[in-house]
Structure to design on (513 residues):
């Protein structure tokens, strides 16, 4: 049996997106900036895609800019907003696309404040307010976290920022949220990033919602595409795939969300009841419908993921060993987990295409994998069935 | 990312557990960094008669400890002390650069166990 349980990493391309893209990969190859019919047809299809996607989010088509993905959108938001200097505020639970861009800008001389999160991974408006300064240029808070799935009170946070100073730009990385939960894009939110391959679209295409009137220095200069704000030959097939996938998700959102959340809860309940010394990370209720993330005492996450792979389950971990550094995920540390616990993290992210039978197999496999790793671990007392305290 | 040899040692670890009647023990690494290796050995007249490991850590940490036990099993203490992390990496047909520290831990675990034996020796 093979079970794909890493939908937060990427999702399979959905049929409506595949079907919609195909003609634009075969015969509709025209450059959307040209003047002949082949080009005009491509341009028309691109603008249709923009309208469809924008309407799914409830924004105007001219506020919807195609990009190459979430990372580009996040880079654009931060670098573009503090082009002329200014203080940057981000949360402690950001994706690396925001965190590392902010760290890069800090090295360039921009002061940076990282707002702490609580043990569920939530940013409070009070904590955010404390970070704001007269010269703050941009605040960026993730809509829903990629590791632990916690959904932030984004609208409230954006309001807090604007009440302090209307000139501060508010950006949210909605890469994990878009297509899966209804996005509240209130007037206080200036910019929002999304990525197609996280909701059944193709890789290499994303978008930035950029509200009318918001001034943002472009990241890519060139031929003046996307109304001069993002140059590069338009990825027509990609844009069409993004729009088709987003429309498909939005039309079926409730059905998919209920189904996905019930699979997720089956997984959470099964794992927490079957495996001793396991803990759910992230907010119990305010979490993405597909995210089930855990830490297991006395085991290391990468080993767990490798063992699960050998059992046919694709999952991921925020352990240090899944990255080049020796530190476990900054998000797990930010919610207050000690290093040794944060090393034992496992993220299972389900999609609407998963089944209950698959979830039961995953529960069984996680149990086997955790037992396998604990059996090998010098931090686990096999006789007593409990962790050995090394301190 | 990992060679087949690493995956083989990860999936079927050799000499995992605790050596029966061990008279040498070495634990290296720390939980904070995500790697702990514990090696136990039964050494008789300067020869490693049995060696077993327990490891908390990534795939490379498990594989390096597993292969290191194979490499020192039956060897004299002097021979085992000559084990280098480079030899461990070579035996595994390579490790990703960020995992080289695991092979260093394996070498250190062997040495720590032998030092323990030498310390306890009457």
């Amino acid at each position: 049996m093979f079970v794909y349980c890493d939908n937060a990493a990427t999702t399979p391309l959905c049929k409506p997106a595949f079907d919609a893209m195909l003609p634009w990969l075969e015969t509709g190859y025209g450059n959307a900036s040209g003047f002949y019919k082949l080009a005009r047809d491509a341009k028309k299809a691109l603008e249709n895609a923009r309208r469809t996607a924008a309407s799914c989010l409830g924004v105007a088509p001219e506020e919807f800019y195609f990009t190459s993905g979430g990372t580009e959108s996040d880079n654009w938001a931060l670098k573009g907003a503090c082009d002329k200097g200014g203080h940057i505020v981000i949360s402690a639970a950001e994706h690396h696309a925001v965190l590392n861009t902010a760290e890069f800008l800090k090295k360039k001389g921009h002061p940076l404040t990282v707002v702490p999160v609580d043990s569920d991974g939530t940013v409070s408006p009070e904590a955010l307010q404390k970070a704001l300064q007269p010269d703050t240029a941009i605040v960026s808070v993730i809509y829903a976290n990629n590791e632990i799935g916690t959904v932030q009170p984004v609208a409230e946070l954006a309001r807090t920022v604007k009440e302090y100073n209307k000139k501060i730009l508010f950006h949210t990385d909605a890469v994990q949220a878009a297509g899966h939960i209804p996005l509240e894009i209130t007037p206080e939110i200036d910019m929002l990033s999304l990525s197609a391959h996280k909701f059944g679209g193709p890789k290499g295409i994303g978008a930035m919602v950029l509200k009318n009137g918001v001034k943002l220095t472009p990241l890519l200069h060139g031929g003046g595409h996307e109304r001069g704000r993002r140059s590069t030959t338009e990825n027509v097939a990609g844009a069409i795939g993004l729009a088709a996938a987003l429309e498909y998700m939005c039309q079926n959102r409730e059905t998919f969300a209920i189904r996905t959340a019930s699979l997720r809860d089956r997984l959470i309940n099964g794992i927490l009841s079957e495996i001793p010394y396991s803990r759910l990370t992230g907010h119990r209720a305010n979490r993405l419908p597909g995210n089930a993330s855990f830490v297991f005492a006395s085991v290391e996450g990468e080993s767990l993921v490798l063992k699960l792979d050998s059992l046919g389950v694709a999952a991921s971990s925020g352990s240090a060993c899944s990255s080049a550094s020796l530190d476990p995920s900054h998000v797990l540390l930010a919610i207050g987990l000690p290093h040794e616990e944060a090393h034992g993290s496992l993220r299972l992210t389900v999609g609407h295409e998963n089944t209950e039978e698959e979830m039961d197999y995953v529960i069984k496999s996680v149990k086997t994998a955790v037992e396998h790793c604990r059996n090998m671990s010098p931090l686990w007392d096999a006789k007593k069935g409990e962790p050995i305290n090394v301190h | 990312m990992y060679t087949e040899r690493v995956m083989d040692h990860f999936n079927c670890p050799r000499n995992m557990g605790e050596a029966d009647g061990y008279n040498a023990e070495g634990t290296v690494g720390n939980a904070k960094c995500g790697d702990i290796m514990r090696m136990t050995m039964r050494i008789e007249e300067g020869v490693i008669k049995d060696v077993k490991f327990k490891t908390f850590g990534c795939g490379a940490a498990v594989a390096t400890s597993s292969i290191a036990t194979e490499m020192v099993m039956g060897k004299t203490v002097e021979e085992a002390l000559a084990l280098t992390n480079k030899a461990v990496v070579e035996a595994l047909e390579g490790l990703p650069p960020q995992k080289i520290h695991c092979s260093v831990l394996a070498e250190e675990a062997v040495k720590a166990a032998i030092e323990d034996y030498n310390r306890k020796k009457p």
